[in-house]
Amino acid sequence: MNTKIIALVGGTGHLGNLIAEEVLAQPDARLRLLVRPASRGKVAHLEAKGAQVVEGELGADEALAAFAVGATTVVSAVQGGPDVIIDGQASLLRAARDAGVRRFIPSDYTLDLFKLPPGQILPSDWRRQFGEAADAERDQVEVVSVLNGSFLDRGVLFDWLRIIDPETQTAYLWGEGEAAVEYTTWADTAKYTAAAALDDEPIGRVLPVAGDRLDFHGLVAAFEKASGKRLRVERRGSLADLDERIAELMERDPQNFLEYLPLMYNRGLLKGEATLPPLMNDRYPWIQPTTVEQYFATQKF
Ligand SMILES: NC(=O)c1ccc[n+]([C@@H]2O[C@H](COP(=O)([O-])OP(=O)(O)OC[C@H]3O[C@@H](n4cnc5c(N)ncnc54)[C@H](OP(=O)(O)O)[C@@H]3O)[C@@H](O)[C@H]2O)c1
């Protein structure tokens, strides 16, 4: 069997750890991790399962060269500001190119950020800028963005986006809620990413995959059906009001991202401007992604 080396940066993070476990479960793959020295303890469980660790970080060219050498695919699951997403990932892509790596998967894992108008979701702007800079390398490295819509897990849907608050049994809406967008669990996104990392055939610039496609009212209905509990819908304003609210918060304190980023992601979902192109789930038919209702049915409310 031809063993492939999958080189993953961000393996200490939430999604990265799930991708790491998926890669380790494949018989034809070996996992290599780029880990910052202070974070090494977070991957002890992966090292115990055979993952190789290269200590270093984005921007550290020598470590990146050692990390990329001999790899089939470099996968990024990092999180951070433009220094990490644009500049840091650019240094990683250069190292991948120089090492003759076949494929590079950047840390996107979101809506179709290539369709979003600038300024709608700041972190998507940085990812689009990285994608544009990566164009210069695409003839040497296949750069594939995994696009999965929004994560549908409770930490994202309930705590971060606060679309539904199961405690008070309230769903929060801006606008009419009639735009359908895609939802995928963290776990399924990790499965598709590992499958893409190991894929022998060219994939293309994007890999759109999803567990479900629902509008706001579909989300509410899925919750009610799975939990047996009714939600009260609280309309917070129109989509124009949402734009205004975000602009107001940004003007008041631009550094306080946590105040307005969740609203930006709500805007991305509710406007439906960044829905995914035709899904490619069928490319990996052994992955049967979880729907929103199936996921809610596994939760206690
Ligand atoms: N679609 C959605 O709804 C959705 C929701 C959440 C996240 N996401 C996306 O999923 C991806 C992963 O997010 P996450 O929440 O799993 O991230 P996370 O848990 O915050 O982990 C971030 C990872 O990046 C690493 N990192 C940051 N800067 C680095 C650097 N300079 N050099 C090396 N490693 C560095 C961290 O390493 P240390 O351990 O050393 O800090 C950590 O492993 C991101 O692209 C994020 O935008 C999408």
Quick synopsis:
Strands 3-2-1-4-5-6 form a 6-stranded parallel beta sheet, with helices on both faces. The chain has a 3-stranded mixed beta sheet with strand order 8-11-13. A 3-stranded mixed beta sheet has the order 9-10-14. Strand 4, helix 4 (82-98) and strand 5 (103-105) form a beta-alpha-beta unit.
Task: Note down, in words, how this protein is organized.
With about 300 residues, this protein is of the alpha/beta class. It folds into 2 domains: about 5-150 and about 185-210 and about 275-285, NAD(P)-binding Rossmann-like Domain (Rossmann fold, 3-Layer(aba) Sandwich); about 155-180 and about 215-270, no CATH class. It contains 11 helices and 14 strands. It has helices at about 15-25, 45-50, 60-70, 80-100, 120-135, 155-160, 185-200, 215-225, 240-250, 255-270, 290-295, and strands at about 5-10, 30-35, 50-55, 75, 105, 140-145, 145, 150, 165, 170-175, 180-185, 205-210, 210-215, 230-235. The strands form 4 sheets. A 6-stranded parallel beta sheet has the order 3-2-1-4-5-6, with helices on both faces. Strands 8-11-13 form a 3-stranded mixed beta sheet. It is globular, with a radius of gyration of 19 Å. NADP nicotinamide-adenine-dinucleotide phosphate binds near residues 9, 15, 36, 80 and 107.
